[in-house]
Amino acid sequence: MAEPGSFAHFTLTQRWPAVVRRIIAENSFPTRIVSDLEILVRDFTEGLIRLIQDDATDTLDWEHYLVPFVGSPWLAVPWFFAEVYFYRRILEATRYFQPGEWRVFDPFWQQKQMSLESAMPDVRAIASQPSEHPSNHFLLPLLYWGLWGNRADLSLHPDATATGIQTNVNASLDHHRILVDDSSWLLERLMQQPPRRIDLVADNAGFELICDLFLIDGLLNQSLTQTVRLHLKNHPTFVSDATIVDVHHTLTTLEADPVCCPLAQRLNHYLSSGQLQLDADAFWTAPLVFWEMPWSVQTELAQADLVILKGDANYRRLLGDRQWPHTTLFSDVAGYFPAPLVALRTLKSEIVVGLQPTQVAAVSQQDSNWLINGHWGVIQSTGYRQAP
Question: pTM to 2 decimals?
Fold first, then answer.
């Protein structure tokens, strides 16, 4: 993170202070909480990494995670680790795990709510699209909306209130900005050999989560899988990352809307029947890359016939948050994952693999910020496993 001019350096010096300032402005915190948040901002450049000081179920885990870094400047810590630590420090400062001292609440709730409300016109437009029989023409828009919904990231755009995504079927596909697109290959196999179970590792709440729910509904409604297991965060993090509370609030919001109510009713039915399952393992908010995942999580994911992995942070964890050459084969790096997977990710960090040399040169010339601005995406797969 110490390299001046890098996106990681910009994140620590500019983006994170903006995140903290906004949650101070949007919440009626007691003076002591505001003071702790202001101290956190000063720590970015003047302080050192220290242990987590609250009493939560993960505090002892954080003592272990932080062993190599305690006493180090923030800029000396690997970027992904520092990001997860930063958001955990926000929860410490706001007493998220100490309801007796304050109250348990999501410090990003107002931002999530504003994002959800501003997304509803786009959501209604998608919900109004005519349903068709299962075919690539039906599934492709759902997959692409799942990809481009990842643009709606409040940690990248803290002042954003709208999705900025067109909902017209053809316009929203934005084919020329998908640098690697394994969607046709994947959907052919889904149609020919429907998997028993698909796991979806969610990223952001709001518009992206609703796009994920559209995809889940399409898969279950058309009997393209028997079960979908949706993996969520067990506490607020990265501003807009989705929790189980966010899922239920989103379904309540959709059910209150006449256009979206049928979608919400189907999803609630899937939940009650067990076809849709919600999971929030502590691993998803840990500062670990995916090859460090606990055996229990590996075993759980290995039961899936396909894993859909959403978002930039999950992609970075998949690649160990390392700057592999952009032309490295995706399957060479991600082949260790315990199940076949497809990554749906818009680019918001300086890490990507699976590109052709000519692509790298062309897109760099067209857009100097292509790696970090969220305007480009990939749909990359390691393979497909038929259900037994």
Answer: 0.94
